[in-house]
Amino acid sequence: MTVEHHPVVVVGGGQAGLATGYHLRRRGCGFLILDAGGTVGHAWRSRWDALRLFTPNSYNGLPGLPFPGPRSGLPGKDAVADYLHRYAAHFDLPVRVGARVDGLDRDGDGFLITAGDLRVRAHAVVIAAGAAIRPRVPEFADLLSADTVQLHSADYRNPGQLRDGPVLVVGAGNSGAEIALDVATGHRVTLAGRDTGRMPIRPGSLGYRMMSRLLAVDTPFGRRMLRNSGNWSRKGTPLVRITPKDLEQAGVRRTGRVVGVEDGTPVVDGGELIEAANVLWCTGFDQEYPWVKLPAFGEEGRPRHHRGVVETVPGLYFVGLPFQSAMSSSLIGGVGADAAYIAERACVTAAQR
């Protein structure tokens, strides 16, 4: 079987992988980007139809190419996918689509990456496959009535997937709030979950940029936030674009956390039964990298790293993780700084081997 050789392999061709490729190309380092989707931007096109970013166009550009459109515009998912596709073509980045990586292990002082029949050896590997890996749904979901339509936010596209009757949206973070508004035009909607609060400043603004510098891994405030970052995906992040008033005006009812099921009906804390013909689980994702056969993970399977550098596995790096170096690390407009930092180190590693 033929084995390809590349100094650096980037796993994932979304914004994190493409930004890393840009900086690798600038440094003259040979590399290959592997992406599981059929086209660049596939992951964005696969999200719900009404999705819009909460960051403005002026903040959404990757390194070297501004995001198109009015500076204050909030683009939809397809606009983001189109931009990523154009970005890869503009910089002639070597993205191989349809290559779902199913194995990563040591090979001498380097690595062996497998993706189906593809075998690639590399001196350094950058995992840019994202943090939202496996949809999280509580075990008691199986106890809901058999005729209840259940969808995770990863599978929700539009209200046409739902049956007639009330909708329970579980999870009151940004995804839950946006989807609750999306279905509220044709359904009676209850939004269940703890109050996640609201971000006090607009993403992309000067204040936001200053806060991003303050809340970084190299500052006392940032280190304190980092210690709590593992709980973010479970507790929900503060609302950004949507306000509590928006939900109230749309007729969305708010209630507490769903804690179980009684006789096929969801129960919230306090014991109230919530009538629901449809349940939409906006309950986040668990990080999962079963294809990585290396000691790179700690508590709950989260990558063990400092600013994306895995010290226990020299030559292995991450880009695009939540709070990798700052609170903006997982956003399109913030991933570039981490990509530059990791690309430099990956190139040095490749040159030394």
Number of strands: 16
By secondary-structure content and strand pairing, the structural class works out as alpha/beta
Shape: globular
- Biggest beta-sheet profile: 7 strands, mixed
Number of helices: 9
**Can you tell me the CATH superfamily of the largest domain?**
FAD/NAD(P)-binding domain
CATH architecture of the largest domain: 3-Layer(bba) Sandwich
CATH topology of the largest domain: FAD/NAD(P)-binding domain
Poorly predicted spans: none
InterPro entries: Auxin_biosynth/cation_transpt (IPR050982), FAD/NAD-bd_sf (IPR036188)
Keywords: Oxidoreductase
Pfam families: Pyr_redox_3
Organism: Salinispora arenicola
Short structural description:
InterPro entries: Auxin_biosynth/cation_transpt, FAD/NAD-bd_sf. With 353 residues, this protein is an alpha/beta fold. The chain has two domains: 4-133 and 287-352, FAD/NAD(P)-binding domain; 135-206 and 230-281, FAD/NAD(P)-binding domain (3-Layer(bba) Sandwich).
Main traits of this protein?
FAD/NAD(P)-binding domain, monooxygenase activity, Oxidoreductase CzcO, FAD/NAD-bd_sf, seven-stranded mixed beta sheet, 9 helices, Auxin_biosynth/cation_transpt, oxidoreductase
